[in-house]
Specification:
Blueprint: E1 2-5, E2 11-15, H1 21-30, E3 35-44, E4 49-58, E5 63-72, E6 77-79, H2 88-99, E7 102-104, H3 129-136, H4 157-160
């Protein structure tokens, strides 16, 4: 485990192993870090890992702590924080949907934003979302005079002012 702090701020950063992730979260909650602000991820494709992190806040001490760990891209799963903070399932749901990371113990992992998305998770660096959109959707740029184009009769620059 390594720890550091940002100069001039009361923000700490703790890097832990995947195995210690949940235990450190529990200890922080016991120490007064009642507010879970976010759970998110970073795709380090070149290293074959995801960085999974959460940020918590102590109201009493006005201190923030970021806890980060690394998991393998070929086995993207980690324990859920849902048994510790009530808002964790929603944060983890977003990470699951956008990165494809499973949070063991989170019963809320189902599409939130991408209900009809059948491609790979769009925030993965190996996801070519532009190709996915081209392949799965018919899109064309608005043409002059098109009813949805930039110069519709009812949307002329003069009528918008």
């Amino acid at each position: 485990m390594t720890a550091g702090a940002n100069a001039g701020r009361d923000v700490g950063r703790i890097e832990v192993s995947k195995e210690d992730y949940l235990g450190v979260a529990k200890r922080l909650k016991e120490k007064g870090f009642q507010r879970l602000l976010t759970v998110s991820a970073v795709d380090w494709i070149e290293e074959g890992t995801y960085e999974v992190y959460f940020v918590v806040h102590s109201l009493d001490e006005n201190r923030y702590v970021e806890v980060t760990t690394y998991i393998r891209r070929d086995d993207p799963r980690i324990a859920s924080l849902s048994g510790i903070w009530l808002n964790a399932p929603m944060h983890e749901r977003e990470v699951w949907e956008l990165f494809g990371i499973d949070f063991d113990g989170n019963a809320m992992l189902r599409p939130l934003f991408l209900e009809d998305w059948i491609g790979p998770p769009p925030f993965r660096k190996d996801c070519n979302w532009r190709e996915y959109v081209k392949k799965n959707f018919t899109l064309s740029a608005p043409q002059e005079g098109d009813e949805h184009g930039p110069n519709r009769p009812d949307q002329s620059p003069e009528s918008r002012s």
